[in-house]
UniProtKB/TrEMBL annotation:
Keyword Zinc part of the UniProt annotation: no
Name this polypeptide is given: N-acetyltransferase domain-containing protein
SUPFAM superfamilies per record: Acyl-CoA N-acyltransferases (Nat)
Gene source species: Pantoea ananatis (strain LMG 20103)
PROSITE patterns: GNAT (PS51186)
Keywords associated with the record: Acyltransferase, Transferase
Residue ranges annotated for the N-acetyltransferase domain, each copy included: 2-167
Pfam families in alphabetical order: Acetyltransf_1
Length: 177
């Protein structure tokens, strides 16, 4: 059974490992092989150790545990953008549990968190155009592609990305949960 909970500083290494594995599984056509193999793990370790060491009431991370192991996570930032609202910064699920509803559970938990703080704010995320499975997943859960642009993410070679948006957390909850 999947257990969702708020991430703790002690989860940083597990989240970084999962994040790196997700990039390596999914972004081989988007990110350089050198970055994925030689720099991504160190980059994600530094990022998550720092992020989870800070207290920020407008940002949270939830993890999904299965048999006591972190198998998924989502990071959401409240009121991140004046126009687009709350930013779903990361959503990653281990390859062994993809397609088993873990991503949906994490999105629902994040939407509940947002709704309890601001039930009118829109939500959005970025997804690489090449990641057709994730794009289809978000669309099945009521997300709408509202923009196509080029990524400014380091080591992404300015690959095309979609902005996917929900009107508010309530819409996401109705569509997905």
């Amino acid at each position: 059974m999947i257990h969702l909970r708020q991430a703790q500083h002690s989860d940083a290494d597990a989240i970084a490992h999962l994040h790196t594995a997700g990039w390596r599984d999914t972004y081989t056509k988007v990110m350089s092989a050198d970055f994925l193999e030689n720099q991504a793990q160190k980059d994600r370790l530094s990022h998550w150790r720092s992020a989870l060491n800070q207290s920020n009431e407008s940002e949270t991370v939830f993890v999904a545990e299965y048999d006591g192991k972190v198998e998924g996570f989502i990071c959401i930032k409240l009121h991140y953008d004046a126009q687009w609202g709350c930013y779903i910064d990361s959503l990653h699920v281990s390859s062994s549990l993809r397609g088993h509803g873990v991503g949906k559970q994490l999105l629902c938990r994040a939407a509940e968190w947002v709704k309890s703080r601001d039930d009118e704010s829109p939500l959005y995320l970025w997804v690489f155009e090449d990641n057709t499975q994730a794009t289809a997943f978000y669309q099945r859960l009521g997300g709408t592609i509202v923009e196509r642009t080029l990524s400014d993410m380091p080591s992404s070679d300015h690959a095309p990305v979609f902005r996917i948006s929900w009107k508010n957390a309530g819409q996401l909850l109705v569509s997905a949960c």
